[in-house]
Amino acid sequence: MKTRVVNIKEFKDKATQLLREKREIIVTRRGIPIARVEPLDELKGLMIKARLEMEKANITEEEAIEILKEAQKEI
């Protein structure tokens, strides 16, 4: 899919609509690129969500793996 280039005002005004298009967006200010927004595939999104939840719970990756191993034993 083709990259969409929008100025910052258009991005602010139409962010939801632009994000629904699920393609890379380059945001510009006065014609100069200042940000790139790219869609995440479902797996990558879930991994990021898991990492954020681990940070919120103050759990390391190693601790999370141990928790998952214990939960697997119970199943």
What would you say this structure looks like, in words?
The protein has 2 domains: 4-37, YefM-like fold (3-Layer(aba) Sandwich); 42-74, no CATH class. It is an alpha+beta fold. It has helices at residues 8-20, 42-56, 61-74, and strands at 4-7, 25-29, 32-37. The chain has a 3-stranded mixed sheet, with helices on one face. The radius of gyration is 18 Å and the shape is elongated. It starts with a strand and ends with a helix.
Outline of the structure:
The chain is of the alpha+beta class and 75 residues long.
Give short descriptive properties of this protein.
alpha+beta; YefM-like fold; 3 helices
SSE order and pairing:
Layout: E1 4-7, H1 8-20, E2 25-29, E3 32-37, H2 42-56, H3 61-74
Parallel strand pairs: 1-2
Antiparallel strand pairs: 2-3
CATH class of the largest domain: Alpha Beta
Describe the global form.
elongated
Assembly type of the chains comes to: single chain
Strand order of the largest sheet: 1-2-3
- Helix-strand sequence: EHEEHH
Q: What is the helical fraction, as a range of percent?
A: 55-70%
DSSP, total strands: 3
Largest sheet: 3 strands, mixed
Number of domains: 2
Helical stretch tally: 3
Catalogue the unreliable spans. none
Instruction: Kindly estimate the percentage of residues that lie in beta strands according to DSSP.
Output: 15-25%
CATH architecture of the largest domain: 3-Layer(aba) Sandwich
Radius of gyration computed on alpha carbons: 18 Å
Structural class: alpha+beta
Distance between the termini: 42 Å
What is the CATH topology classification name of the largest domain? YefM-like fold
